Give the backbone structure.
Amino acid sequence: QVQLVESGGGLVQAGGSLTLSCAASGRTFSSDTMAWFRQAPGKEREFTAAITSSGDSTYYADSVKGRFTISRDNAKNTVFLQLNSLKPEDTAVYYCAVPKISDRFFYITQTSYEYWGQGTQVTVSS
């Protein structure tokens, strides 16, 4: 059974940093693109960042570009999201996800994703 388990969320002041982790189990994901989405209260879930299977290419939403960094450790079947210079508007539940297809494209819509974690809450205070 495939499972994605996020961790690392918490409460942080504006300007602070957090590192989120997503540990995958059930099968190896070393050949899959992996992504992070987030969902703020009362808003749609939105694409945040993605990384190719080898880690040689990444893609970010404009709202987080230059502040967030996605990375992965295939030996540990884990993907990370480093959140720096956090703003109150970054407050959301953060989810990791695996797309239905892993190719040279990055997919930013929820329907393109097959596996999801349960999410981890990030709250940024002003």
